[in-house]
Amino acid sequence: MSIDKVLGKITEYPQTYDPSILVRELRQTNRDSVNLDGDNLPFIGFDTWNAYEVSALTNTGVPVVGVCKIVYNCDSKYIVESKSLKLYFNSFNMDRVGKDPRDVRHVISKTATIDLSKLLETEVKVVMFPSYTAVAPVPVRVTTGQKDLDEFYLTLEEEFLPEKSDVYTETPSLLTVASREPGAGAKTVTKKYHSALLKSNCKVTSQPDWGDIYISITGEVQPEPSSLLKYIISFRDECHFHEEICETVYQRLNTIYQPSGLEVTCLYARRGGIDINPTRVSSADLLPQDLIEVTKMHFKTIKQ
Q: What is the three-state SS of the chain?
């Protein structure tokens, strides 16, 4: 099924449960452009999706609403197309699927797990949470005035907003190396960066996608912060899916700085009732556990 089967098209909402509406897209299509081999990836990671417009009826016709969290591995051959997922979940709206709210959530979780795992040919985990589930804000602290950056995210635009930025297509040559103090030898350090200025556009419709990006780099070489911010800004007019943006950033940083440890996580704002949150890391100990654990509703940014 083509990626543009429903994306960017006027589409009638299904009136009954319909898994055939789901559409998938090959990951490798974009990976080729940044020299990533899907069979030999330099990272591990997951894609976490949250679908906020999920509802069905009990057997007695009472509506049940909730949020579905979907998690699957980045080594899968395919990703699911977001509008088709929105339509898929909306196909449950008028179906009577359980005896009570808990049963309805269980049925939708199980059904979506089966359908998405079949579509993507990989293990997909889905849990439907009640709509009243409490969610904490993302734990980010600005590091202005802190002596040790190792334990904190440095919010780039707080201190390193460039006076001029006019490059809005992905340009890795913007990335430069931070200078060392005179006489300072090579030292492995970990620094963590955050920016709320991530913006890209949908690959098919060109609609804007807004997000926050979190980067952790361990190594003897670190990016010059303002150059890192300029690089993040350079995605502003790029047209890619969320997962592709995350992997491109990872690949560029990994190639240029050759870190011993690297994490890139992008938390995007919802569009069409769904937010998408890819994370790519060099080792399993760097994975953000709350994000990838399907049984927990993870932290949210202000945008989300």
A: CCHHHCCCCCCCCCCCCCHHHCCEEECHHHHHHHCCCCCCCCCEEEEEEEEEEEEEEECCCCEEEEEEEEEEECCCCEEECHHHHHHHHHCCCCCEEECCHHHHHHHHHHHHHHHHHHHHCCCEEEEEEECCCCCCECCCCCCCCCCCHHHCEEEHHHHCCCCCCCCCCCCHHHCCECCCCCCCCCCCEEEEEEEEEEEEECCCCCCEEEEEEEEEEEECCCECHHHHHHHHHCCCCCECCHHHHHHHHHHHHHHHHCCCEEEEEEEECCECCEEEEEEEECCHHHCCHHHHCCCCCCCECCCC
